[in-house]
């Protein structure tokens, strides 16, 4: 669905990403992990055309990303950025309605089809009771849910979520990731998730891409990435890899150093 080949990105004099090659397959959940500053957000920005690489290619459904009009791209792909939604004085419903922009522009009235998509996104994200509240009256976690509702109202084929669980308590973290999973089941959508929590990444992703200093150190199955020596080298910690007793997936336990 998305193919990135030999892609490199410079910003000013700085090499941010180098020789990135990987594929996101239709219907899968791909996790991007790696230490702070390793290039995960920059990679998501390239995948969503917010940053233009200076070498290599990025294609979506076989066509260069650059060949899509903004509206066509927004119908295919929705992005929830790390920054989330600002606490603006607009209602939750108005914010979610912005997700319909690619179908009619900002200044046209919502059609019945738009209203249906907005309502579905509000229900799916459990935001219906908050529909008339202002964003500025919501908690950070609730605003995060609004950002995701907005991206779902967009009815994309691919959702790119950059650290969707940052600042959220464990209940909200699981809630957000379950939401994405349910959306995928219902729509056969594709998801790319940047996650810091490796245990959640192992539970919710089909495959992982591990980044380090602007490069992909390894990409592969959960078992191939959740490997003690590899994670120790990349993160500089001493992880103990154990098997989750119910899910039978690798999970890590960390040891304090002194
Ligand atoms: N606009 C910019 N100008 C210069 N350097 C930048 C710019 N944006 C990002 N960088 C640098 O690129 C590198 C990768 O940043 P990026 O935000 O992609 O990393 P990340 O893996 O998402 O980090 P984090 O986990 O901390 O969010 C960092 O060293 C960062 O300082």
UniProtKB/TrEMBL annotation:
<dbReference type="GO" id="GO:0005524">
    <property type="term" value="F:ATP binding"/>
</dbReference>
<dbReference type="InterPro" id="IPR017871">
    <property type="entry name" value="ABC_transporter-like_CS"/>
</dbReference>
<dbReference type="Pfam" id="PF00005">
    <property type="entry name" value="ABC_tran"/>
</dbReference>
<feature type="domain" description="ABC transporter">
    <location>
        <begin position="2"/>
        <end position="238"/>
    </location>
</feature>
<dbReference type="GO" id="GO:0016887">
    <property type="term" value="F:ATP hydrolysis activity"/>
</dbReference>
<keyword id="KW-0547">Nucleotide-binding</keyword>
<keyword id="KW-0067">ATP-binding</keyword>
<keyword id="KW-0813">Transport</keyword>
<dbReference type="InterPro" id="IPR003439">
    <property type="entry name" value="ABC_transporter-like_ATP-bd"/>
</dbReference>
<dbReference type="InterPro" id="IPR027417">
    <property type="entry name" value="P-loop_NTPase"/>
</dbReference>
<dbReference type="InterPro" id="IPR003593">
    <property type="entry name" value="AAA+_ATPase"/>
</dbReference>
<protein>
    <submittedName>
        <fullName>ABC transporter ATP-binding protein</fullName>
    </submittedName>
</protein>
């Amino acid at each position: 669905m998305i193919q990135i080949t030999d892609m490199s990105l410079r910003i000013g004099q700085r090499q941010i990403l180098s020789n990135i090659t990987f594929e996101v397959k239709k219907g899968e959940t791909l996790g991007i992990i790696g230490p702070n500053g390793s290039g995960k957000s920059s990679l998501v920005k390239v995948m969503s055309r917010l940053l233009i690489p200076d070498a290599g290619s990025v294609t979506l459904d076989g066509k260069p990303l650059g060949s899509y009009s903004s509206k066509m791209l927004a119908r295919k792909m929705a992005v929830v950025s790390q920054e989330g939604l600002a606490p603006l004085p607009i209602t939750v419903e108005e914010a979610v309605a912005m997700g319909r922009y690619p179908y009619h522009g900002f200044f046209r009235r919502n059609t019945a089809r738009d209203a249906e998509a907005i309502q579905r996104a509000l229900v799916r994200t459990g935001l219906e009771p908050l529909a008339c509240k202002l964003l500025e009256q919501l908690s950070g976690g609730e605003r995060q849910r609004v950002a995701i509702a907005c991206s779902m109202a967009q009815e994309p084929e691919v959702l790119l979520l950059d650290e969707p669980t940052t600042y959220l308590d464990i209940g909200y973290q699981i809630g957000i990731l379950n939401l994405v999973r349910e959306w995928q089941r219902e729509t056969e959508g594709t998801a790319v998730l940047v996650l810091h929590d490796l245990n959640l990444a192992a539970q919710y992703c089909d495959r992982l891409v591990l980044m380090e200093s602007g490069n992909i150190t390894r990409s592969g199955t959960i078992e191939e990435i959740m490997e003690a020596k590899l994670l120790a080298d990349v993160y500089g910690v001493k992880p103990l890899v154990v098997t989750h007793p119910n899910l039978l997936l690798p999970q890590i336990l960390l040891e304090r150093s002194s």
